[in-house]
Amino acid sequence: MLSLRSSQKRAWTEERRFFESDGRPLYAVTYRAERADAPVVIFCNGFSENHCEGRAEAIAARILAAAGYSAFLYHPRAHGDSAGDLEDVTFEDLIDDAVNAATYARSRTGARQIVWVGIRFGALVAAHTIGRVADSAALALWEPALSARDYLLKAMRHVIYHEIALGERPSMTVDQMSELLAREGKVPLLGFDLYRKFFDSADADLLDALQPWRGPTLIAQFQKHSRLSRAHNKLRETLAGRGVSVHAVLHRGPDGTDPWWMPEEVARQTGAWLDELA
Amino acid sequence: MNWRETPATLSRARAEEPVTFTGPIGALHGIFTPPAPDAAPARACVVFPGRPRAGLRRHLVLAARILAAEGFAGLRFDLRGRGESDGEVARPSRTDPLGADVVAAIRYLREAHGQKQFLLAGNCFDALTALDAFPDEADAISGVFVATPTVLEQKPGGSPKHNRRLSTPSRLRSMVRRTRAPKILHSFEIPFRALARSEARALFLYAEQDRLRAEFRVAEELLFSQLDSEARQRLQIEIWPGRIHTIAGQPATIERAISWLREFHPARSERRNHPEPRRAISNEL
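The joint structure predicted for all components is written out below.
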């Protein structure tokens, strides 16, 4: 499926296809821009309970393509339109999918360099992938998860908040959900079922994974706060202390809206950051 | 229900085609799942309008593949303003369902994929949207699965959150308005009447403890009561205990959608019309 898009800036094409990763078809969209020698921007996402993130990726990819950067988004195995069963997935599998996505994205765009955009849990995956993919040139972290365990435990807490918002007594504490996961091998969360196999495999820490990373890095915070959260500030300071060039962006979105619904501004800022790196 | 990927559903995943078609305000994106070539053809295409198209916990993806493995074609697509589709994102509005998007999907499937008969399924706003396709495409729709759509112009009792912000006179006016007879949405009534005039079957699914159940009671009193016996037989109602209009209620809802849609398979109807002779109970033990 190929369609031609044009904007006030540059033309680009959109191509929707499945590619193979570990013997499974994974869904991908390639936004192919015409800027010579530009890197391809790969969006890396996963384990989200937030259904507006996929749309945010698509909007951002179009904005970047209009700015001349080819962009690529994909659904990891057992996510979205891809094949696979969540019950079988491990954290390492998500890294394999990202590596295969990079190979495929290069083949479709002709780009050599890659800029990774890691979104929430996808930041952990991107951080673990950059060491395995040559010519990873830059890393943008959009509302990054700093620890896989903390992210998944937070997803358990969201079940409690959701039940309280419905006026119900929470059905389980986080400890009880953890016990259920250990005992039954599965616990239903808001947007996905969490399986013990994945939980046990996902002991990732963002700063640990980025120990060898020295490339330019952008941290985009999708929150209503007027300054970086303590956790994001620690991330920035630690990376800067290692000699990494870090650029931070606060994306608050219009009042009264979830910032993920309106990603245009952060996408433009990401594009401007790439322009500065070029 | 077993949602695990099987060789049959993996085979359908391999056969899927990303599709793009033109909606009322721009491109709409979806995935077409062809029926399994080795399954008895169901001669119908199931359309799932989505926000986004994968549905919660990917249930629409899995449902499309399960049904395709049994001979149904399927299309799941992002409604305008959602997922990859064009358009501004907007809060779902009980007065503005997006039936025109479903009509565009049906026409695309007819022209590009040779599909002739359609089954629609939706939950909440997507159900209202599926129903909203009837005024334009009733003849092509064999059935619609409708789970917990809104029915009335206003929520019964109004919105407490909204009312807190009102001044005292406004609150009084609001109370007076609420004492008026509840009014059924045009966006529910017009498609409902088109559905009643058609030959399509429907299943309306609600649960006792959902707030929307109270709205649906008004539809039962004012619309279903007017149906003749033929239409009343075609338009089924199921009221479950508890709640289904919740995140936790969605798996059961989509499971029911799958089991109900399966009834449209010609092989199943043939089995119903020509049941196998009953074996003696002793043979079954």
